[in-house]
Model the fold of this input.
Amino acid sequence: MLDRLAPRALLLALLCCCGVRASSSSSSPSPCPARCECSEAAHTVKCVSKDLRTIPTGIPGYTRNLFVTGNQIRRIGPESFRELENVTNLSLSNNRISEVESHTFAGLRSLRSLDLSNNQLAIIHPEAFTVQNESLQELNLSRALYNHSSVMDLATSFRWSSLATLKVLDLSHNNLIFLPSRIFSHLSSLRRLQLSNNSLVAIHNATFLGLDRLEELDLTLNALRTVPEEGLLELDSLPTATLLLGENPFTCTCGIEPFAAWLNRSQGRIRNADGLVCSFPLSMRNTSMLAVGTLTLGCHQRDAGADLALQTSYVFLGIVLGFIGLIFLFVLYLNRKGIKKRVYDLRDACREVWEGYHYRIEIDSDPRVSQVSAGVDA
Ligand SMILES: *[C@@H]1O[C@H](CO)[C@@H](O)[C@H](O)[C@H]1NC(C)=O
Ligand SMILES: *[C@@H]1O[C@H](CO)[C@@H](O)[C@H](O)[C@H]1NC(C)=O
Ligand SMILES: *[C@@H]1O[C@H](CO)[C@@H](O)[C@H](O)[C@H]1NC(C)=O
Ligand SMILES: *[C@@H]1O[C@H](CO)[C@@H](O)[C@H](O)[C@H]1NC(C)=O
Ligand SMILES: *[C@@H]1O[C@H](CO)[C@@H](O)[C@H](O)[C@H]1NC(C)=O
Ligand SMILES: *[C@@H]1O[C@H](CO)[C@@H](O)[C@H](O)[C@H]1NC(C)=O
Ligand SMILES: *[C@@H]1O[C@H](CO)[C@@H](O)[C@H](O)[C@H]1NC(C)=O
Ligand SMILES: *[C@@H]1O[C@H](CO)[C@@H](O)[C@H](O)[C@H]1NC(C)=O
Ligand SMILES: *[C@@H]1O[C@H](CO)[C@@H](O)[C@H](O)[C@H]1NC(C)=O
Done:
């Protein structure tokens, strides 16, 4: 036991001495903010899970990678990041940030990667993501929005923050229900767009407008039941992008044929197209979307069914009419005596009329009478 501890203690003592000597001999010791760990060699400062309420001051100028994660930070503004011109990677994930002011990151002239994942952003000002040097390439907003309402603020900030150099945008796990039209239209360099685990139900015209260089679009774990013609045209407007569409509740009823045909046509650019399956109806669950066609859906059988229903209704109508007829006959039968009498009366009346008529015809056809009338006419 002692044998093992002794070298460690010696090492510790040695390290302490060196540390003391280094700090005493160095004319400008590099300070490190309280509750942070600084590594000048790695140009890295980490203030991780230290219950910090604000961004610490006195972060050394050499810092390239700054991690202030897992704390209780609620507000950040332009004053939070001063004289940090060398920071290229900034992670503020796992805090409670709810508001990002305009120009908060503007002074970080070298900033390339900004991670705001796992926060509660409710208010995002229009120029929240502006960086003086337009150097930002990666923005991580995974699980970062407080609720769906923040998406309008977000769209505005994408418009006004000069993000023309952004290559990667992560908006996964945000409960997004829809994307405002043209939300990405100013992110013309975007290569990867992460939208997985949201609640998107549709893809509309102009949703992905301006993403001419997109290489990957991840829409897994959303609420797409199908993608109608409008959405298919929109996806076709991203010809170079690989698409991820898994884990959506695809509903394989008759309307889905155009989408299924499109999937079959576009297999080449859909990752794991073979793995896409129907979720509803239950009878179709786990059926490959690529195998879904007119035949499997039985869309024509439905027409036959409609015919059958029509035939059934005719039969029913016939029965009802027959029944009414029977009742009519029964009523006639019950009144047979009165009817007989009436018929006789009618017959007598007819006879009288007929006889009178017959009599008149005989008079009319009497040649003498007609001659007389002809003579009068002449
Ligand atoms: C940023 O880094 C450069 C080069 O490493 C260095 O010369 C400069 O002093 C650094 N800036 C600050 C504020 O320390
Ligand atoms: C800094 O960000 C870049 C992407 O911009 C990434 O490739 C790199 O790994 C990050 N470095 C660190 C230390 O996180
Ligand atoms: C964004 O952050 C989450 C964790 O907070 C991580 O899992 C994800 O990979 C990040 N996205 C990108 C594009 O790096
Ligand atoms: C702007 O960013 C680029 C890298 O994106 C860097 O090389 C350049 O030095 C930056 N300019 C200033 C003034 O910081
Ligand atoms: C989002 O949160 C804000 C602030 O609490 C609230 O006013 C708004 O109604 C919420 N929106 C949704 C869609 O829940
Ligand atoms: C999707 O996001 C919700 C929160 O919005 C989370 O609870 C859930 O675990 C996520 N699902 C996956 C598979 O990541
Ligand atoms: C989509 O919108 C553009 C203009 O924003 C319009 O020209 C086009 O006709 C629309 N397409 C569809 C299918 O609605
Ligand atoms: C669907 O397939 C998965 C894996 O292939 C399997 O675990 C699941 O039980 C299947 N569900 C049904 C309803 O067949
Ligand atoms: C899918 O496309 C192939 C040709 O690429 C075709 O032979 C096949 O019949 C199609 N399948 C369906 C279900 O449409």
Summary: The chain has eight helices and 13 strands. Residues 9-27, 372-378 have pLDDT under 50 and may be disordered.
